[in-house]
Amino acid sequence: MKVAILGGAGKTGRAVGAALAQAGVATRPLGRAAFDDLPAALAGVDAVHVIAPNLHPDEPTYVAAALAAATRAGVRRVSYHSVASPYVPAMPHHLGKAEAEDLVRRSGLAWTILQPCAYVQNLLPAVRDAASSGELAVPYAVDTVFGMVDLADVAAATAAVLTAEGHVGATYELGGPALVSVADVAAAAASVLGRPVTARRTAPPDDVHPWLQAMFDYYDDHGLPTGGLPLRTLLGRAPATVGEVLARDLAS
User: Could you give the CA distance from residue 146 to residue 90 in angstroms, rounded to a whole number?
Assistant: First the structure.
């Protein structure tokens, strides 16, 4: 089996490639240059995993091009990297993924959609700063809850749906093992770092992307809670906790 990973050079794409390699699957990571002749880039693969660039200005068009190229290349299996709670009118980049999900479902291909929550790894730079400052600073509320998830677990789940039977036509929301706030992450960081860490809400930069500001505003009010059972089922084990992710990734 060979899987093309569209967006394979990014953080998520590299993790998916590593998980597939661990499962004994050959991969073909593809970047933006592949769009010069995407059907040719997809020739000879059995499946394609589609990851759009962060905050892509027109994700539905990006995904539509990938689906059309897969069809032309004779690739019948596709998985799409969406987001938890894609249909949230207050967050434009989530809505783009909701529209793209609709395209995937109507593509005529054998599809699976993955909807991961925010990665624990997204907070690693702030946690590393906290090692010296003692503060975990984020531009949104520190007490609303999220189903924060380990990127490595999301990648392993992606490998599972592409290499096992029974996942065609499925949509999986992928959350971590428990709902946690940034304050909880600060407590886990304190345990790993061996020093006090306090969570603090800070102002976003003046030039923040308006879609990110909309996301921060939504997080202030609602967080992004997601369930952990689908991921546990796909992995056949408990997903990694925030503390386990921090201990592992800070050490590396």
Answer: 17
What does the alpha-carbon distance between residue 29 and residue 41 come to, in Å, rounded to a whole number? 10
Residue 244, sorted as left (phi over 0), alpha (psi -120 to 50) or beta, turns out to be: alpha
Q: Using CA atoms in the order 143, 224, 63, 101, what is the torsion angle rounded to 10 degrees?
A: -170
The residue written with tokens 């690693």 in the block is 124
Q: What is the DSSP string of 126-181?
A: HHHHHHHHSEEEESS-SSS-B--B-HHHHHHHHHHHHHSSS-TTEEEEE--SS-B-
pLDDT along the chain (252 residues), means of 10: 97 98 98 95 98 96 98 98 97 98 98 98 96 96 98 98 97 98 98 97 95 98 97 98 97 84
Range of the domain at 166: 2-251
- Could you tell me the CATH number of the domain that includes residue 141? 3.40.50.720
Neighbour count for residue 213 (Cβ, 10 Å): 14
Distance, in Å, from the CA atom of 42 to the CA atom of 46, rounded to the nearest integer, reads 9
Number of domain units in the chain:
1
pTM over 0.90: yes
